Amino acid sequence: MNKTLQVRELETEFHTPRGVVRALHGVSFEVQDNEIVGIVGESGSGKSTVVRSITKLLMPPGKVSAGNVNFAGRNLLDLTEREMRQIRGKEIGFIAQNPFSALNPVTRIEKQFANIAKAHGVKVDASERSRALQLLESTGVRDPERVMRGYAHELSGGMAQRVVIAMALYLNPQLVIADEPTTALDLTVQRQVLDTLRRLTVESGRSMLIVTHDLGVVASYCNRVLVMYRGNIVEQGLVEDVFVRPRHPYTISLLNSVVRPEDETQFVPGDAEAPDTAEPEAPNPSTVQLSEARRS
Ligand SMILES: Nc1ncnc2c1ncn2[C@@H]1O[C@H](COP(=O)(O)OP(=O)(O)OP(=O)(O)O)[C@@H](O)[C@H]1O
């Protein structure tokens, strides 16, 4: 299988007035063609810092201090902001948690699609417009014509996130990176949006890297999972392997904290606490049920 993205020994620091915070300690992983990789871990473990470092969307005082991010034959960390802008949108689509932060409040949605095309030298004609309409429709936007002519503030959170997804996919990027894309949405809409994302990425030959705090999302949608703890990937592998036979104490604690014995096939969102033991415990047998459910 070919690698869409290869991250090697990524180190990121935040230079704060109170000193240097080392947020990533040599993070390495790959995203293969045609797969969805999930990043999980407790709040502050470094999930967003990973995706923002890769896409060079890290805000000061954050700074990547070492590593390689290989994508389409280049190390993204060597590129200028101008070069990176050409890659973002066209080759890598990025979806942030808050759709309204990605949408321009004073520009009609159709103009925002046209601006994306123009910024990447794509001629905006009727066929491009109809492609935007089709994408909106496939993300579940009802009445795409009306949405195209409207503004972001006229949209609900769910509709706005679908518009952002359609924009992220507009120029057919090989890789989609999503940072908690559905956290702000209610559960039914979450599932619809994730189904759409899956359909429009891996089922169309693309790959996706998705940050989530929700292990249910990983179980249902991801092929592989990266488990982060305090700036390190402590465990990674196929979802069925990691969730059935977790090896690291933190993964075990994370899984135990969200699997309810009375509802063994379903994960529920929950905050995981770091383990205070260094020795792995036996995995919770109920996690095995999850894998069975996923395969069926
Ligand atoms: N602006 C900042 N200034 C200083 N330190 C920061 C800043 N942003 C992040 N960090 C540090 O980087 C670490 C990782 O943060 P990050 O936001 O990547 O975690 P996360 O796993 O995405 O958390 P969450 O699930 O809450 O979004 C934090 O624990 C914090 O120490």
From TrEMBL:
Q: Which InterPro entries match?
A: AAA+_ATPase, ABC_Ni/Peptide_Import, ABC_transporter-like_ATP-bd, ABC_transporter-like_CS, Oligopep_ABC_C, P-loop_NTPase
Residue ranges of the region described as Disordered = 267-296
Topology relative to the lipid bilayer, per the entry, is: Peripheral membrane protein
Chain segments annotated as transmembrane: none
Which residues, if any, are the signal sequence? none
Which keywords does this chain's UniProt record carry?
A: ATP-binding, Cell inner membrane, Cell membrane, Membrane, Nucleotide-binding, Translocase, Transport
Molecular function via GO: ATP binding; ATP hydrolysis activity
What family, per the record?
Answer: Belongs to the ABC transporter superfamily.
Q: What is this protein called?
A: ABC-type dipeptide/oligopeptide/nickel transport system ATPase component
To which species is this protein native?
A: Arthrobacter bambusae
